[in-house]
Amino acid sequence: MPNTDKRWIVGVDVGGTNIVVGLLPMGGGEVLALRVLPTESQRGPKFVVDRIVEMVEASIAEVLEAHEGRRDQIAGVGIGSPGPLERTTGVVINTPNLGWRNFPLRDLIANAVNLPATLDNDANCATYGEWWLGAAKDVDTLVGLTLGTGIGGGIVFAGVIFHGVSDVAGEIGHMTIDSTGRRCKCGNYGCLEAYASGPAIALRAAEGIDAGVETVLIDMVDGRLDEITAATVYEGVVAGDAYAEEVMKDTAKFLGAGIANIINILNPEMVVISGGVTRAGDHLFAPLRAEVRRRAFRAAEERCSIVSGSLPGTAGVVGAAAVFKKEMFGEV
Amino acid sequence: MPNTDKRWIVGVDVGGTNIVVGLLPMGGGEVLALRVLPTESQRGPKFVVDRIVEMVEASIAEVLEAHEGRRDQIAGVGIGSPGPLERTTGVVINTPNLGWRNFPLRDLIANAVNLPATLDNDANCATYGEWWLGAAKDVDTLVGLTLGTGIGGGIVFAGVIFHGVSDVAGEIGHMTIDSTGRRCKCGNYGCLEAYASGPAIALRAAEGIDAGVETVLIDMVDGRLDEITAATVYEGVVAGDAYAEEVMKDTAKFLGAGIANIINILNPEMVVISGGVTRAGDHLFAPLRAEVRRRAFRAAEERCSIVSGSLPGTAGVVGAAAVFKKEMFGEV
C-alpha cells in the first residue's frame, strides 16, 4: 500500500444531468475540491470529455496547491458512467441519456490528464461509495438503489462490487414488477424504473390530475402539468397535500415490491437508497418498509435495514475513487 | 483431502412429495443405491424422519456390501430440505408443504445414523448438484431454478452457494412479476411461483377450460378438471393440442419475465432449469428464450445460456452431498 497520507484519487461521476468531480484522500475522508457542472450532452461527446478533463485538472490543481503537493501524488482517476459498459476496455457500450455508443470514455480521459483511470457503472460507484465512507460502512452484503432520471442498482458482497459475467449485474431498475405493465425506455414492460424513477413519479402524478384530481400540485406549477417533477410531488407532500401523499405512497409500493424481490433473491444485510426522492424521508420510507414487510420472506426482511444514503450528491464520486483504489491496489 | 477412492457421502433430498436418497463417491460420479419413497408428511414428522433414516441406512448398507467397505468410509450425510431454514443450527424454520416449524431435522437424522450431517435448502442443493456433476460444471456465475410444486432457486458464485445474511437468498420463485397479480401461497401477490409452478400451470389450464375453451385436455382427464396437472398440459402439447401449447407458451412468458429479471440483476453465465416441466423441451425453451431476449439487457442476455438440468431426479441428492463435502472439507 502507498503512503495514504500523501496521495489522492480523483472521482468522476458522469450523469445525464450533471458531472460531479472531486478528490478523495487515499485513506478516505471528505471529498475535496468538489465541482459540479451540467453535462450538456446535446453539445456532443467531445464537449463532455473536454468539460470532464477541465474539471479534473481544476480539482487536482486546487488540492495540490492547498497541500503544496506534487502531481505524482495523484494516483489516478476513477470514473463512473451510465452503462452498459465494459470495464476491461473502459468503453461505454450504450447510454441513451448521453447518446454514446461504443465510446472509449476511460482512455479519452486517462490520455488527456495523463493518469491511469478506471471505469465502472455509476450506480455501482454510488453503492460502493456508501459502502466505503457512507451509510453502509462494513456491510458485508449490500444492495444499493439510485433513484433519479433512471433507477440504477449496485451489489457489493464482501467489499467487492458484484459485476456478473459481462458487467451488467445490478440493473435492478430494469426488473419487471408488472409483466404486462408500463413500457420502459429500455424496451421492456413493467420495469421498476417505469414506475418509480423521477420522471415516472411525475408522469403518474400528472395522469391523476388529467383524470380530475384536485391537488396543490397544479398551483405549484401554475397549471403547467408538464412541469411537474418528482421534486414537485415531494414539495406537495411536505405541504400536506393528500394527492401528493398518495402518489408518494404508490411510489413506495412499487419500490417496496422491487426491494422485496431483491431481499428474497439476495437476502442482503442492507439496502441503501440514494437520490432526491429520499428527501421525502418517512413519507417514503414508512410505507416502503411496510410494503417490503408485506411481501418479503420474514427471515430475510427482518435482517435487512432499508436506509437512506448518507453521501447525497457525492456517493458516485466517492465510489468511483474507491473503484480506482480497489482495482489498482487490490483493497479499499 | 481424504482418499476420495474409498469414501462416500450420503445425499438426502426431502421434498413435499418424495424423499430421495443416494450415495456419492467423494470424488464425484454416479449416484449409488438410489432410493425414492413418498414423503407422506401427513403421517407426521416422526414418520418422515424414521423413513429418511431407514432409507439412509439401507443405501449405506447396499454400497458398503457391494464394495466390501466399512462404516467409517461413510463421511456423513448432506440433507436438502424446503426452507426457510438455518444452516448453522440445522433447523427447518417453516415448511408449509411439510407442516414443520422450528424442526431440528439435521440433528435428528445425524443422531439416528450416528454420522455428521449438514442441512441446506433443497433448491440450493439442486443447483449445486448441477454445478458439481451436471449441466453447469465449471460455471462461475450460476442461477438454478427448480420447477415443481413450488419454484425454488439457487445461486452459485465461484463454486460457493450464495446464502445471503440469513440463508434465504435464492428465493427466486417468490419474486413479484405482477405486483397486483395472483395471490401466492407465501402471502405475497404476483410471485413467479403463482404463475409457473406445476399447480399454477394446471390452474391456469383449468381456468381457460372453465371459460369455454375446447381442448384435448378435457378428455385426457375424463372431464375431471381438478385432475389436470402440469404433466397433463405437457402431454397435451406433445399430442399437438393448440390450447395446451398456449398454456405452455404463457408459462414460458412468465418464466421468461422472471429469468430476465435474474439476468438483469445477476448477469449470470448460465441459468439451469430443472423439474418435470423441462420435459416439454423446445415447446418451453424456445418461447422462454425469446421472452428473455425481449426483456433482458442484450449485453447480459447474449452471455447467458438457459439450459435444462442434466440430473433429473437426482440433482438434489448430488447437491446435498456436495454441500456436505464443501462444509466438511472446504472444497468440492
Characteristics of this structure?
homodimer, 332 residues, alpha/beta, Nucleotidyltransferase, domain 5, 2 domains, five-stranded mixed sheet, 11 helices, 13 strands
Estimate the global geometry of chain A from the Cα principal axes. globular
Which CATH class of the largest domain in chain A is shown?
A: Alpha Beta
Largest interface: A-B, 53 and 52 residues
Q: Any idea what the CATH architecture of the largest domain in chain A is?
A: 2-Layer Sandwich
How many separate domains of chain A?
A: 2
**From the helix content, strand content and strand pairing of chain A, which structural class follows?**
alpha/beta
Helix content class of chain A? 40-55%
Mean pLDDT across all residues of chain A, rounded? 95
Rg of chain A, nearest Å: 20 Å
Distance between the termini of chain A: 10 Å
The quaternary organization reads as homodimer
CATH superfamily assignment of the largest domain in chain A? ATPase, nucleotide binding domain
Main sheet characteristics of chain A: 5 strands, mixed
User: What name is given to the CATH topology of the largest domain in chain A?
Assistant: Nucleotidyltransferase, domain 5
The helix/strand series of chain A, from N terminus to C terminus, equals: EEEHEEEEHEHEEEHHHHHEHHEH
What is the tally of beta strands of chain A?
A: 13
Number of helices of chain A: 11
